[in-house]
Amino acid sequence: MRGKREQPIVKQPLIYELIENVEKVVVGKRREIELSLIAILSGGHVLLEDVPGVGKTMMVRAIARSLGADFKRIQFTPDLLPSDVTGVSVFNQKTMEFHFRPGPVMANIVLADEINRTSPKTQAALLEALEEGSVTTDGETRELQKPFFVMATQNPIEYGGTYPLPEAQLDRFLFKFRIGYPTKAEEMEVLNRAEKEPPIESLQPVLALDKLLQMQADVKNVFAGRQVKEYIISIVNATRQHHAVYLGASPRASIALMKAGQAYAFMQERDYVIPDDIKYLAPFVLQHRLMLNSDAKLSDLTTERIIRDLLEQVHVPAGNEQAQ
C-alpha cells in the first residue's frame, strides 16, 4: 500500500544522512528505507513480501553497512534446524567442556531470507528473539546484541514447499510492506550503477551504533497524548468489529502503532505524535495482523482495502497535545 505525501518525512539530520547513504545503493525506494529505519528506531522488525530480485537483500545490507553493524543472513530452507539459527553447544575435547557457538541470529541486523520455506519449529526459534531480544539454548538464556533488527522476506507467488507463518509470529513484526518494481528511469539508474563496481562495496558507515542506541532511547521519550492513544484504540478496535474480519488486531498491534508513531515523529524532529502519523503508519502495522473470514476471501476482499476503508470511517481527532 503506497501512501502519498508532499514532502519527505525526515528532518532529523543524522537519519536524513543515513537515508541518503543507503540511496547510493538502493534506487527509488525512499519510503521503504524510511519505514525500515522507523522500525529500527522503535525496536521493531520488518516482514517484506515481494518477488525475487527487487532489492530486498541489497537494502538491508546497505542499512547494515551505513550503521557499521554486524550483519548476518539466514537462508531458510526446509532442512534448517532451530540450532542453525540460535546456535549450538559444541564439546571441546581439549578442555573437556561444552562451548557455545553463536548462531547467525546473534548479530545487530539479521536478514531472514525466505522465512516461510522452513518448518514451523525452526520459524518458532525466532519468536523469542523477535519479542524478547534473547535466545534460550540448553536451558540458558542469552541476550542478543543491541541494536537488534530482523528483516524477514517471503515470496508471495511461490507456495509449493512453504509453511505459512503462524499468526503469533506475524504479530511480532512491526511492519509488513512490499518494495515493488522500479520505474524505467530507476532501473536505468540501477544498471548504470552496477556497470562497474557494485556500489555496496564502497559504502561507508555514517552513523555509529552507540548514537543509534541513544536515538532509540530518545524515541521512547516522544510524547503520545491521550487523543492519539484513543485514535489508535479506535482504529484497532474497528478491525475487531468489521464484518469481514475473523480475527482483528491485538493489543500488541496498538502498542506497535504507538511506538511506530513515536519513531515517525522523532524523524520529523517533533517530540510529540500527531494523529496523521498514526493514519499514515496504520496500514503497514495492521495489514498482516488481520484474519479474514471465508466470505471475505471468496469476494476477493483484502486486508489493505479493509484498513483503508476503516481509516476513512474512524474520526481523526483535531489538533495535538504537545503542550500538555
Key features?
Helicase, Ruva Protein, domain 3; Rossmann fold; single chain; 14 helices; 2 domains; alpha/beta; two-stranded antiparallel ribbon; five-stranded parallel β-sheet; 15% strand; disordered N terminus; 42% helix; 324 residues
Write up what this structure looks like.
The chain is built from 14 helices and eleven strands. With 324 residues, the chain is of the alpha/beta class. The chain folds into two domains: 1-219, P-loop containing nucleotide triphosphate hydrolases (Rossmann fold, 3-Layer(aba) Sandwich); 221-316, Helicase, Ruva Protein, domain 3 (Orthogonal Bundle). Strands 2-5-8-1-9 form a five-stranded parallel beta sheet. A two-stranded antiparallel ribbon has the order 3-4. β3 (87-92) and β4 (97-102) form a beta hairpin. Belongs to the MoxR family.
